[in-house]
Amino acid sequence: MSIESDRAEIIRLHRLWWESNFTFDIPKMRSVFAGERYLQYNLNGHPYYGLEQKTRLWEALKGNVAIPEISGDIDVRIEIAGDMAWLACENIVRVEARPGLDLPGIPKTPFRIRSTEVYQRDDGAGNPVWKMWHFHCSPTAAENEPRVPFGDSFASRRK
């Protein structure tokens, strides 16, 4: 195994994870994660412990919530050290709820998110296969909000 093949596999899992979000494709989503030891800090602000809780969340969302748009990755960073790796990026996402369903804290227009993914070369059963062990997603600061103490913003850094 080489660092290049490790990087390619982590990027493949990352893309598979984001693709699964468009249709809440549970088998595709489950193929990325490390089983019941997996931990997610979801965009909705709540933690989900293991794949069974994550699957139950997606079963509740499927048909009630859609994620019709996720931008390409912005400012991707990947670090790999032995059997551990992390990937961080930003995206712009649009989330839609079925009429009458409220999604507290989730804007109705496209908004910027940031996420961190932690990978381990361990499938949760001790096999040396890259899997995601932790995912954290949260909204970012507003597009033009100044960054303390620098005074720049997401918008000004893109210029």
Walk me through the structure.
By secondary structure, the protein is of the alpha+beta class. It has one domain (3-158): Nuclear Transport Factor 2, Chain: A, CATH 3.10.450. The chain has helices at 3-23, 26-30, 50-61, 154-158, and strands at 39-41, 47-49, 65-70, 74-81, 84-97, 111-121, 130-139. Strands 1, 2, 3, 4, 5, 6 and 7 form a 7-stranded mixed sheet that branches. It is globular.
List keywords for this structure.
single chain; Nuclear Transport Factor 2, Chain: A; 159 residues; seven-stranded mixed sheet; alpha+beta; 35% strand; 7 strands
Annotate the secondary structure layout:
Layout: H1 3-23, H2 26-30, E1 39-41, E2 47-49, H3 50-61, E3 65-70, E4 74-81, E5 84-97, E6 111-121, E7 130-139, H4 154-158
Parallel strand pairs: 1-7
Antiparallel strand pairs: 1-2, 3-5, 4-5, 5-6, 6-7
